[in-house]
Design goal:
The chain starts with a helix and ends with a strand. The protein is built from one helix and ten strands. It is about 10% helix and about 45% strand. The chain has a single domain, classed as Jelly Rolls, CATH 2.60.120. It is globular, with a radius of gyration of 16 Å. With about 140 residues, it is mostly beta strands. The strands form three sheets. Strands 1-10-3-8 form a four-stranded antiparallel sheet, with no helix packed on it.
Length: about 140
């Protein structure tokens, strides 16, 4: 019985990342490279279902003393909610584009890395909605 429940859970998680077919034409956010150098881009297509809030989680290696800029954008044709991100280390959240006190979402946030290591970044649309968008991680020149 436990194996069956595990298989169902895995299927639910995988279906939340199946994507939205209409997002195929949306590739990336515009990036101002005058002050930053692009490190990594993510293309995100998250589809909600009634069991699991759609999120995408990635790992990334960050270096101490480097200032990173994480920018996000949504395809407004298919996304009614803003794209959010949260950056974590092993001890918890270190950066986000959400100001929960004011209920605001920002298109970008900067983070100066305090310790070299593996960090995890989670992307989701506000309120667990479906949507498509993109994210960029850049470093300050």
């Amino acid at each position: 019985m436990k194996k069956f429940a595990g298989v169902i859970l895995v299927l639910l998680v995988l279906t939340s990342f199946s994507g939205i077919k209409d997002c195929d034409g949306f590739k990336s956010c515009p990036v101002d490279l005058s002050q930053y150098s692009l490190v990594k881009s993510y293309r995100l297509s998250l589809e909600s279902n009634k069991y699991v809030e759609p999120k995408a989680r990635f790992s990334i290696m960050l270096s101490k003393g480097v200032r990173y800029r994480i920018g996000v954008c949504s395809n407004r044709d298919y996304s009614k909610s803003p794209l959010t991100f949260t950056l974590f280390d092993n001890y918890g959240e270190v950066a986000s584009n959400i100001d929960e006190d004011k209920g605001k979402f920002f298109e970008a946030a900067e983070y100066e890395c305090k310790k070299t290591g593996v960090y995890y970044i989670t992307f989701a649309f506000a309120n667990g909605k479906s949507g498509c968008g993109a994210a960029n991680i850049s470093i300050k020149k």
